[in-house]
Each structure stands twice: as C-alpha cells, then as structure tokens.
Amino acid sequence: MIHFPGMPAPLARVVEMFSTLPGVGPKTAMRLGLNLLTRPASDTLALASALHSLHEQVSFCDCCGCFSEQGHCHFCDDPKRDRSTICVVEQPVDVLMMERGHGYRGSYHVLQGRLSPVDGMGPDQLRLVSLDRRVEQGIREMIMATSATVDGEATAHYLANRYQQGAVHVSRIARGVPEGSELEYLDEHTLSRALDQRVCWQ
Ligand SMILES: [Zn+2]
Fold first, then answer.
1. What does the pLDDT look like over 45-69, one tens digit per residue?
2. What is the Cα–Cα distance from 175 to 160, expressed in whole angstroms?
3. How far apart are the CA of 109 and the centre of ligand 1, in A?
4. Which residue range forms the structural domain that includes residue 19?
5. What is the pTM of this model?
C-alpha cells in the first residue's frame, strides 16, 4: 500500500491502482495521478469511460481466441480470409502485430500462452481443444508463429508433432535480419538463424 501522509484518499486510490500496472512504479503512479488532477474533469471521465467499456465490450473470439466485440472476431467474420490456413500465435496482441504487415490473408488461432513447465503451462492450459476441432474440420496449412524463445520453440515443436499428419502442412515463420538493420547490431542467435534459414535468390 502506497501511503503519503496528507494525500487525499481518492488520489491515493488512483495512485495505488496505477502502481499495479506493469512497468509503473510508485513515483510514476504518483505522477500519473497528479497529472490527471491537473487536467479537465472531462479527460478523466473519458478515461474512466474507456476503461469501463474495456471489459464490457471486448472479449475473445469463440473460434480463434483473438480480440472480439461480439462472438466472432473481425478476422473469422471476413469471408475473404482463407480458412484453410491457420497461423498459430501465443497471444491476441500477436495477431495485431501480424496484421501490421498486411500480407497475410489466412486465419488465426490464439493459444493464450505457451508451454512452460516452470510456470505450470502444459498442453491442457493452451487453447488446443478448439484447434483440434478446426483441424478436424479440414485445414491445408498451419503456420507456427510462436515466439523465438525456448518455450516458444518448444510449443511450436509440440504442435508440429501433434498436427503434422495427413494433409496438414506445418510450417514455421522464419527468423532473420530485421528490415533496415545493420548486421553489426544483431545478436549471434538471430544472425546464425538467418543464415540457417536463408532463401534462394529470386
Ligand atoms: Zn476469430
């Protein structure tokens, strides 16, 4: 509990709530709280309203697990999307990152986590029942877009073993040199992986 003698209780509550957010320490929480006090009341009301509607209006897609405002998400509802290709990601926010590239026209599946024995995350904790169902309904390709971490790689391998059968083609997104970056600033793992996954000159 953050306690500053003489601080009004409503301000203390706001500071306390801010300090529970990731990356926000007590000093930053205090600065945010004080900043809100100096702004017009309409600003804080707008913030409160936005926060209120967050849980009221945003949920997760019944099918793919991405952000949704009603039952199915924007991507599952889009008839132009290729439903026979599924890109598997760890978190809903990963879908938003993938979409920034504007190049992918398939569908998604959000695992809501990744395998991590240390954190008690096993296959039963991931959204695999719904993925099993989608695979049973027939898909052509599954693209693993889990993170480039040890746990992310382990998750991709687990899923590849689970689904690479029959007509399902399982692939993994390539890791490599970011656009516009100098080689000297890359870590050795990124560089060696980029070399391993080199592509033919076109
Ligand atoms: Zn969806």
1. 999 999 999 988 999 999 999 999 9
2. 17
3. 7
4. 9-57
5. 0.80
